Amino acid sequence: MTTTRTRVTRTLLTAGVVAGPLYVAVGLAQAFTREGFDLTRHQWSLLANGELGWIQVANFLVAALATGAAAVGMHRAGGSPWASRLIAVYALSLVGAAVFKADPAMGFPAGTPEGPGVISAGGMLHLLCGLIGFVAVGAACFVVARRFGPLYSRVTGVLFLLGFAAVAIGAGAVWANLAFTAAILLIWTWLAVVSLHYRRTV
Fold it and tell me: Which residues 6+ apart lie within 8 Å of 133 measured at CB?
């Protein structure tokens, strides 16, 4: 018999399953329609700028809510408390990324000068939120590996952190930006797979 607690837990974990696909779909829709945006040169955070920047801000917030729900769902499903906490930190970092927008750079939005531009206090906080959140979710991969998909989770954690390191040191290089984009797709896929696993065990 399915209890109310079970239904709630499954709903929370379903949010974790759809968080990534929804975030990626909205991000790509903007990437292919916003004037001047180039997936090989621009990070998705830049989409929060300009007249339509509210779409990416909302995308961050919805992804944060869904990720936070997944963290609670994993805890309720008997997952590692530390994994749940680390994923919750990632969710909070997405809220920070929405509140503190990345500074316009690399010619985006249209009319912005080329180059990295000047980093404002808000832009610095955006970077700090990203650093904290990415390290947290990367660490969560290794914690989850103790109970689910040891090889898959560890490989995901390593590749994700390498992708983050690449964009941090790549100075806007195409290879670094593409590596980071691949890392983002990888971590959202991991969250969906893990959320689905725990949903099935409830």
Answer: 89, 90, 92, 93, 94, 96, 97
